[in-house]
Design goal:
It is a single chain. By secondary structure, this protein is an alpha+beta fold. A five-stranded antiparallel β-sheet has the order 1-2-3-4-5, with helices on one face. The protein starts with a strand and ends with a strand.
Length: 69
């Protein structure tokens, strides 16, 4: 399920529970994949009134680097 992110850079995000991976879909068409993201961390993004800031804080926690498509 694609979840909207109100951002000039990121259009949507989604989560793959089997892989524990967060997918960020950029307005440019690029997709970034962050591995080792816990389900609770992703739930905090869904519950946040400001998903972009929550995503950025999650990335600052030192999650694994993204792979762009």
């Amino acid at each position: 399920m694609l979840v909207p992110v109100e951002s000039k850079q990121i259009a949507f995000c989604s989560y793959d529970e089997d892989e524990s991976s967060l997918y960020l879909y950029y307005h440019t068409g690029d997709v970034a994949i962050f591995s080792s993201i816990g389900k609770l961390d992703y739930q905090s993004v869904l519950d946040s009134p400001n998903r972009y800031d929550t995503l950025m804080n999650l990335m600052k926690k030192g999650q694994n680097a993204a792979v762009n498509w």
